[in-house]
């Protein structure tokens, strides 16, 4: 099973203590268009570089700074990247540089690097910036020879700098780079778009308007496609898949059908590079004129422009940038003369290293396919994440039942169980609409299993779930009640409504519920039907999945609050904040929130601590207060220790830090559970629910015999989870072994590997297992169909 973690392999693990940066000089630069999260990557490179004993330099203003030298190339310190994690754009500046494109420019740049002993280069930018870096590397020995000839360096300098090692990270809001699921900045740009769409929807609703939104993406429709999925847009135009001829009438018909079903607004999203099949530009104004002339609807255009590049980075981008930055330093330290320049990237939930030029060539092939009007090929080359988004969008846009499944006579029930989590409604909407498209009759169960046994079940139609994607909480209603005590009544309700499949969207209680129903199959034939659970809980504590629906929204809420708290602390100086997060016994929110917010220490149940650790942490903060960063941030998971409570830690820190720093405490509480879902959760919910319904359809076909549905095999009661790179259906019966039921957490949790990373970035000495670090792979390999990790939204 992809990504299932087995027992710890002590003998094969290697630790990066063996990788020393002593005597090495690393330079970091940002180039091309800016993207939110670049600062997180710069911070991680600087701190990891210093941590391993290397000298790290900033190159200001991208390649221009490398060519100009002088004060543009400055040594970085630990403190110089303090407080940049929450800042958008790039603090070291970025510029497009014509001079670097010339041989003379690159010769100057080489001279400037050799003067400072720099032979390791980390470039954060788009494909143009990375291609430039690769060319520079290929020319390096030739450039050194020229410098010797010109008398600018001696033979010894050339010998000691004979190799230039390069690692790239892709910073681009367009997500237009092949080989990676998500580029730094994409998720934040989606946040900006969705904030605007949510705001526009309320005014559009009031006036029954149609809004045409133009988003960035000259050559790549990712932002347009994903924001269309995340807000349930009526129509989307993207460069990779121009609309069929006659689209004008089709679009107007779709808009007017939507209005006749009671919708008060229409949203149309246009990527700035959208064209028709003939290559003619489709502009937002053209679309507006069409709607007005054909339908007479009150229509407005909003062009988002550079708003999408701005603002603070999302939690996802901060974590992605921090992970990639550390990975980049490891890749540089491990580089040898025969390793190609590589890009560090994310596939699913796993860091990978890919040859830079393979990625660039594939990215260029997409453009070539589009120029040659081979649009299906362009979509395929974009990668599985893009393909998946497009197929899900089409599935939800079709609105007519497939002819081969017309009136399948299957009744599929959808319900929420456990605490509310953002994204639940997006998943319900997607399940209902895909189910109807697949020919099923869809039923909604209100208030979890409590509503189920009381008979709160009714048919739910296409129009009933309109506008649900952006709603927080659970519109169906949800309860923590488990089914075990009400099996007779639940079976009775299943008979009355002839329920032939069940989709449960919820947290740990949903997992326990499905186990109880599975175990009751021997006594109740009503439960011998396909059953599937989609993990949805802010705690991310469900076994069988790396990500649960709702956790991303919650992380963003935590990070936003921590940003504000840090800001207040930087004004008062010498202040330490102790913040309590939710999560039950699962330390995911505290750990990953701590990594994204730049916390000094995070206390969790999974990593036991004692009074000596608390003392060491206070001492660490005391030392920190002697530097220019005079504030501290400590996160504590609510159940990390029954005796070391938030109050206890607050009092201990206050007493031990007396005269050095003062303390404040903050319990975040239920604000972590509310709010509008993040783009990630809207999209993830939409895609996993569509996948689950397709699995249910397939399983129903296989288990329909002699006029009824009957299946009691363990692989028909499944949990759909994301494991490293793959979306996997796993029998709940098998997941029982992987679960600690007392503390309601999985026995193995992938994110614990992020803890050393968080400690390193907070200046703690720690052991970091790099056996899971990215290995150099090749981008040309087409991944098997199941291995699509839709983690990358």
Automatic annotation (TrEMBL):
Primary location class: cytoplasm
InterPro entries: 6-Pfructokinase_euk, ATP_PFK, PFK_vert-type, Phosphofructokinase_CS, Phosphofructokinase_dom, PKF_sf
A biological-process GO annotation: fructose 1,6-bisphosphate metabolic process
Cofactor: Mg(2+)
Activity: how regulated: Allosterically activated by ADP, AMP, or fructose 2,6-bisphosphate, and allosterically inhibited by ATP or citrate.
Catalytic reactions on record: beta-D-fructose 6-phosphate + ATP = beta-D-fructose 1,6-bisphosphate + ADP + H(+)
Residues that coordinate or bind ATP: 33, 96-97, 126-129
List of catalytic residues: 174
Region described as N-terminal catalytic PFK domain 1: 1-398
Keywords: Allosteric enzyme, ATP-binding, Cytoplasm, Glycolysis, Kinase, Magnesium, Metal-binding, Nucleotide-binding, Transferase
Taxonomic superkingdom: Eukaryota
GO cellular component: 6-phosphofructokinase complex; membrane
Record PANTHER family: ATP-DEPENDENT 6-PHOSPHOFRUCTOKINASE, PHOSPHOFRUCTOKINASE
NCBIfam families on file: 6PF1K_euk
Subunit structure: Homo- and heterotetramers.
Purpose: Catalyzes the phosphorylation of D-fructose 6-phosphate to fructose 1,6-bisphosphate by ATP, the first committing step of glycolysis.
Name this polypeptide is given: ATP-dependent 6-phosphofructokinase
Native source organism of the sequence: Poecilia mexicana
Organism taxonomic ancestry: Eukaryota, Metazoa, Chordata, Craniata, Vertebrata
């Amino acid at each position: 099973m992809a990504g299932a973690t087995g027992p710890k392999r002590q003998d094969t693990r290697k630790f990066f203590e063996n990788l020393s940066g002593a005597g090495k000089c690393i330079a970091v630069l940002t180039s091309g268009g800016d993207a939110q999260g670049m600062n997180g990557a710069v911070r991680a490179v600087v701190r990891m570089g210093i941590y391993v004993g290397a000298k790290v330099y900033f190159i200001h203003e991208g390649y221009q700074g490398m060519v100009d030298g002088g004060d543009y190339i400055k040594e970085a310190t630990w403190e110089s990247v303090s407080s940049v994690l929450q800042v958008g754009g790039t603090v070291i500046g970025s510029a497009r540089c014509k001079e670097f494109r010339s041989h003379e420019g690159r010769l100057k740049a080489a001279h400037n690097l050799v003067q400072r002993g720099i032979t390791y280069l980390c470039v954060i930018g788009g494909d143009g910036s990375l291609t430039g870096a690769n060319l520079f590397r290929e020319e390096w020995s030739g450039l050194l020879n020229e410098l010797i000839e010109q008398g600018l360096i001696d033979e010894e300098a050339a010998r000691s700098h004979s190799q230039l090692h390069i690692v790239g990270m892709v910073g681009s809001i367009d997500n237009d780079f092949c080989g990676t699921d998500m580029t730094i900045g994409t998720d934040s740009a989606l946040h900006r778009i969705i904030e605007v769409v949510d705001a526009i929807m309320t005014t559009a609703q009031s006036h029954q308007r149609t809004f045409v939104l133009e988003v960035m993406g000259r050559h790549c429709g990712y932002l347009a496609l994903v924001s269309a999925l995340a807000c349930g847009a009526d129509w989307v135009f993207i460069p990779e898949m121009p609309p069929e001829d006659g689209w004008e009438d089709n679009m107007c018909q779709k808009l007017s059908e939507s209005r006749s079903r009671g919708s008060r607004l229409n949203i149309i999203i246009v990527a700035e590079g959208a064209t028709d099949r003939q290559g003619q530009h489709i502009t937002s104004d053209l679309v507006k004129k069409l709607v007005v002339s054909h339908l007479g609807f009150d229509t407005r255009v909003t062009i988002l422009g550079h708003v999408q590049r701005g603002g603070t980075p999302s939690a996802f981008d901060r974590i992605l940038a921090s992970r990639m930055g550390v990975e980049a330093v490891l890749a540089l330290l491990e580089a040898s003369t025969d390793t190609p320049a590589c890009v560090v990237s994310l596939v699913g939930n796993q860091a990978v290293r890919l040859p830079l030029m393979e990625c660039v060539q594939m990215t260029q092939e997409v453009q070539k396919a589009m120029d040659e009007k081979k649009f299906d090929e362009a979509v395929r080359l974009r990668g599985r994440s893009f393909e998946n988004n497009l197929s899900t969008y089409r599935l939800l846009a079709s609105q007519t039942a497939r002819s081969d499944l017309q009136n399948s006579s299957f009744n599929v029930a959808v319900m929420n169980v456990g605490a509310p989590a953002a994204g639940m409604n997006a998943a319900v909407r997607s399940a209902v609409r895909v189910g109807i498209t697949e020919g099923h009759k869809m039923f909604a169960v209100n208030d979890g299993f409590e509503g189920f046994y009381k008979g709160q079940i009714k048919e739910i139609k296409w129009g009933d779930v309109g506008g649900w994607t952006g709603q927080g909480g659970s519109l169906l209603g949800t309860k923590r009640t488990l089914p075990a005590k009400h099996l007779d009544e639940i079976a009775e309700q299943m008979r009355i409504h002839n329920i032939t499949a069940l989709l449960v969207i919820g947290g740990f209680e949903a997992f326990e519920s499905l186990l109880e129903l599975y175990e009751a199959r021997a006594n109740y034939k009503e439960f011998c039907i396909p059953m599937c659970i989609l993990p949805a809980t802010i705690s991310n504590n469900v076994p069988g999945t790396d990500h649960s629906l709702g956790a991303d929204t919650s992380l963003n809420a935590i990070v936003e609050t921590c940003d504000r708290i840090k800001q207040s602390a930087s004004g008062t100086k010498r202040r330490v904040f102790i913040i309590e997060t939710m999560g039950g016994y699962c330390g995911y929110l505290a750990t990953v929130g701590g990594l994204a917010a730049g916390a000094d220490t995070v206390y969790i149940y999974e990593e036991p601590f004692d009074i000596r650790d608390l003392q060491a942490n206070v001492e660490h903060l005391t030392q920190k207060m002697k530097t220019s960063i005079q504030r501290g941030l400590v996160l504590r998971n609510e159940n990390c220790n029954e005796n070391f409570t938030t109050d206890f830690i607050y009092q201990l820190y206050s007493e031990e830090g007396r005269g050095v720093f003062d303390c404040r405490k903050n319990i975040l509480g239920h604000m972590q559970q509310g709010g509008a879902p993040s783009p990630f959760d809207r999209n993830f919910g939409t895609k996993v629910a569509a996948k689950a319904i397709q699995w249910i359809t397939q399983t129903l076909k296989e288990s329909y015999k002699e006029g009824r549905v009957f299946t009691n095999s363990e692989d028909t009661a499944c949990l759909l989870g994301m494991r490293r790179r793959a979306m996997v259906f796993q029998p709940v019966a098998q997941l029982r072994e992987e679960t600690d039921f007392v503390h309601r957490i999985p026995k193995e949790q992938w994110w614990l590997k992020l803890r050393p990373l968080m400690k390193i970035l907070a200046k703690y000495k720690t052991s970091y297992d790099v056996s899971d670090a990215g290995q150099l792979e090749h981008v040309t390999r087409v991944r098997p169909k199941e291995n699509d990790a839709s983690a990358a939204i």
